[in-house]
Specification:
Layout (H helix, E strand, L loop, with lengths): L8 H16 L16 H19 L5 H15 L12 H16 L3 H16 L6 H11 L1 H10 L5 H21 L1 H6 L7 H6 L4 H5 L5 H21 L8 H23 L15 H10 L1 H7 L1
């Protein structure tokens, strides 16, 4: 039985809405998957729902930049004030904040991590290019790393070493998403490849305009992929630093991220013709690697 089912009806309805939102949105990795302990899943869904809606404000076509920023400001204002129980016909946003407020109070989650997420979403509205790696990594510090830390807090972990490892994996996952979504982001006017890497490889923006993956862009992307792989490796110990079902969730998340990076590299980074992603055929391999994890680690 899901422990949330024993809560008052408005709270049950609020979490149900968040879980439905998590199921309906496509992601590389399942949100609040069955691998997580049942006690964690509703709370992770509430965190996801909050971030998903805010990300939509920043990314969805339509509103002008000023309007997107206004929506994000209003979202942040709601984060900082109390939530009231949603009624049977309340809009979904009321459900998100009622569930999230309960999650924050139940687990003592730092609100600063949610503010970091919103600052990254605002940055997506106003920033389209990044000159250096530190600029990209600072964006990831606010756009990706808070999620990993929130998952750890919901699971009951508050350990600086685990936080550091989680940050490395979350940043690597975010960077992998950048490289697989290069074409999508470019159509939105954004580029997350540091301009220093682009210029070092003598890659030209005009080729991206034409949907061409040239040897120069491949060289730039091989370079950023190598840094991404190094981050995955530096964060890998977190998969053995947690207990129970969360360990399996993190192993498969780590393996899935690496697999997407490998698929992107194997395609020569030609993301204009096909977006690299996890395929059904990858599932048996990932499961086998997760089961072989301890043996492979001891032999390495």
């Amino acid at each position: 039985m899901n422990p949330i089912d024993a809560q008052p009806e408005p709270l049950t309805r609020a979490y149900s809405y968040c879980e439905r939102l998590a199921r309906e949105h496509y992601e590389n990795f399942p949100v609040a998957s069955r691998l997580l302990p049942a006690s964690m899943r509703p709370h992770i869904a509430a965190i996801y729902a909050f971030a998903r809606r805010a990300d939509d404000f920043a990314d969805e076509p339509g509103p002008a930049p000023d309007e997107r920023l206004r929506l994000l400001d209003a979202w942040e204002a709601r984060l900082d004030r109390g939530a009231i129980p949603p009624g049977p016909t309340s809009p979904g946003d009321d459900c998100i904040f009622f569930a999230l407020e309960n999650t924050i109070r139940t687990h003592g989650l730092p609100r600063s991590l949610f503010h970091d997420l919103l600052s990254a979403f605002r940055q997506d509205v106003v920033t389209a290019r990044y000159e250096t790696w530190p600029e990209v990594l600072d964006y990831c510090r606010r756009s990706a790393n808070p999620v990993g830390r929130l998952v750890l807090r919901v699971a009951g972990y508050d350990d600086p070493q685990l936080d550091e490892q989680s940050d490395a994996v979350c940043t690597a996952l975010q960077l992998t998403n950048f490289w697989q979504d290069l074409a999508i982001d470019w159509r939105r006017g954004r580029l997350y490849v540091p301009l220093q890497e682009r210029d070092r490889a003598r890659a030209l923006d005009g080729d991206l305009d034409a949907g061409r993956m040239t040897p120069e862009w491949q060289a730039a992307l091989h370079s950023v992929a190598a840094k991404t792989r190094a981050l995955f490796e530096s964060g890998k110990p977190i998969c053995d630093g947690v207990r129970g079902r969360l360990r399996w969730e993190l192993r498969l998340t780590w393996l899935g991220g690496m697999r997407i990076l490998e698929n992107t590299e194997a395609a020569g980074f030609d993301v204009f013709n096909r977006r690299p992603s996890l395929r059904p055929a990858d599932a048996p391999l990932l499961l086998w690697k997760a089961l072989r994890w301890d043996a492979d680690e001891s032999s390495s």
